[in-house]
Give the backbone structure.
Amino acid sequence: MKTTSLALGLGLGLVAGFAAVSPVGAQESINFVHNTYRTGAFSGSGIPVADGVRDYFTMLNNRDGGIGGVRINFEECETQYDTRRSVECWEQAKAKNSVVYVPWSTGAALATIPRAHIDKMPIFSMAYGLSASAVGGTFPWVFNPPLTYWDGASVWIQYIAQREGGLANLRGKTIGLVLLDAPFGREPIPVLEALAREHGFTLKTYPIPPAEMQNQSSTWLAIRRDRTDWVLVQGWGAMNPTAVREAGRTGFPRDKVIGIWWAGGDDDARPAGPDARGYLALSWHQVGTNFPVIQDILRHVVDRGQSNSAREKIGENLYNRGVYQGMLIAEAIRNAQRLSGKRVVTGEDVRRGFEALNITAARWTELGAPDFAAPVALSCEDHNGHHAAFVIQWDGTKWNRASDWIRPDRARIRPLLEDAARAFATSNAGWPARSESCDQRS
Amino acid sequence: MTDATLATRKPFLSEGQRNGLIAGGVLALFIAALVVATQTGTITRNDWIYKIFVDPFVSMVDMPDLLVQTVWEGFVAGVLYSLIALGFVLIFKASGVFNFAQGIMVVFAALSLVGFYEFLTLTMGLPPGFVAAIVAMAGALGIMFVLAVAVERIVLRPLVNQPDIIMLMATVGLTYFLIGFGEYIFGGSPKVMITSQLGLPTGSTMLDFAGGRINIQHLDVAAAVIAAVMIGVLGFFFQYTRIGRALRAVADSHKAALSVGISLNQIWVIVWFTAGIVALLTGIMWGARSDVSFALEIIALKALPVLIVGGFTSIPGAIVGGLIIGVGEKLGEFYWGPLLGGGIESWLAYIIALMFLMFRPQGLFGEKIIERI
């Protein structure tokens, strides 16, 4: 029985976790407390992500004995995607000397950004959170690679232009944004508004209150009334499968509905069955198990019964995103060890490690993930990178790549972000000027 | 003419009719004034008064297909709200408790159904399809029955004759227990409702209407029919059977019912089981529109405005209330939502409910409570 095996797996995982933790206390270890939401209304999105990152670090411990010979003491802190609980998890992470805080919620990122430089714990909000935190001069403790929601908006519009035959053809079109009525949902609006003015399309926003996530029929009727040509979905949790279903119910062409990267889970498209075929989403990494790193996870974690995930869900889009995040953080820890010369690094060292992050195509191959994702490089100034993304399409059973790499319009986005960062610093009286030194790249 | 004849002379119109006439007259005058003002150009398309009072009605007439579609969507949503509200009403009638746990019972029932189906097809080797789905349905009903018995034994029986607030808190506790227990057994991953396996229709029909099209989902039609049948059966059950009469006796007074030999415990089990059946149906219908996950629990909050309109004690009230809220909020969101940036329906439902409350504090079909001092 699947449910029993899941519960059994959970139990085993817990037992294994305890067993692993107790002897480690005596040894050298690096603590990493990671926010998750395996329960609550957003667990559908939270579970695969949590499984991916957890399995990656378990694999590093089992295969390599950790990073640089030091075991990673990976712990989860359950937030239920609730900002208050997420802030409690910050306190917990701080108390346990976690080397990085991973909020997994834009609300939580916004709430903890003012604490990072005080508690000396870097925040890693991968492609979510405050877009302006890409500016390292203002936010030395916050990292949000590989691209921001603002870059996402730029990629969205470029992809639509490709399909419409050029940016000039956007004039007179109506593009709708179906968004979760929360800080996360509203993030792309400023850039979409600017692009609408520039290219002459009409932007319509359709906010979905969190309590109405599964009750969207009037939204999709309004989309029909407004004769919207394209629909962008900035959604999370149960909002996404409902949006895909409603698109099918109202007959809106699914290949003109594009989710943000967080609306691209397998469980977002699957429940709608054949109605979901053609649905699009942004992504920046591949799906599937056909990578040495995923095979290692299968061999060293899943086969030993140490994974919480069902075997068939390994390699799904959000699972691989968890793995991707794990690889970036692990690389930052490696950099921190190299830069500081210490084996057991601190949050301050890992902050430097993130600024030195430089995963080239060759490095991706060394990490066991050839062509898994585009090269990622950060710097003291640029904590995001504004890297390229691509579009994936659901074929009824799985995601397939449906476009080339699309680079966000960095020249346009970066000044907007710098303005926003300056505005943040002035509106938060006493925001400190950057005092952290910058390591020269070796 | 003496005072006595004055007092007994029947007025030409009752007070209610008079008020109705006055309100109708004012409304007609207002509409006439708006029409004149618009025609003469006193108010233009950019005035807020035009946007609020004229534009929505103009677009209703211009695009009648969308109006019908909106009303239909509201009707379907209303039927589904009624189903949720029905679960609350049943338990409130029998035990005077607002069952805080109704929302999680919906999730629990739906997860049991899907979980059983997975167990039967994946572990027991039953071929996937209708038979397995029906067996799973029976299993889910069994679980709801066990839950009803357990609630009666563990929660309600020790609390007989305690103040209502204690019972309410007990259902709050039950909610959190069921959330944790459900997550332990089924995990937090969303599941896909076994809609077609249960024999529920999928697909849709396009109807041409007044130059436009209306899209009728077969599942929505089935939901409306099933809900109607369910409500009819429940109405018959509680009106005409012995158990139904006993239930109504319990609702009137626990002590009086006990004194004539009605088993309170038995009635409670029956009522909680019935609420469980309603929860299962609600879970199937909502699960089919999205996925089956703990997020479905939020949907239960939709019952509150419905209960305010329909009253806590009336089955017809739950139905009419559901329809008023469903149609009202969809029309409001669709025609007036854009003026406020959209996303207004969650609070609009309460505004509609409060407007009813102003005129009928006991709800449309609720019992008028007269507490004498």
About this structure: The first strand of chain A starts at residue 29 and ends at 36. The two ends of chain A are 53 Å apart (CA to CA). Chain A has two domains: 2-147+287-386, 149-283+389-409. Residues 2-147+287-386 of chain A form a domain with the Rossmann fold fold (CATH 3.40.50.2300).
